[in-house]
User: What shape does this take?
Amino acid sequence: MVREASEETGLSVQIGPLLYATTFRTHPWRQVVLLSYLCTAGQGDVVLSEEHDSYRWASREETHATLAPPICTDMDRGGVFAQLRDLVD
Assistant: This one.
């Protein structure tokens, strides 16, 4: 994951604990596994790989507006946003 984060964003990251995991089907033949880890990055600017054309740091409200409601409900129920709030407060 450290290598992948560096390749995709140009950031040097440290991988922390798993915050959230889920799986769902987008089609009968396609299953998506979503794993969210708490990561910290050192100094530096995001430099995206050619695979991406944008990024953003999202607040809780922006995350709720972007992700599917069942995922946000699960994240709330699992205390993900509370853990993140504790880190930045």
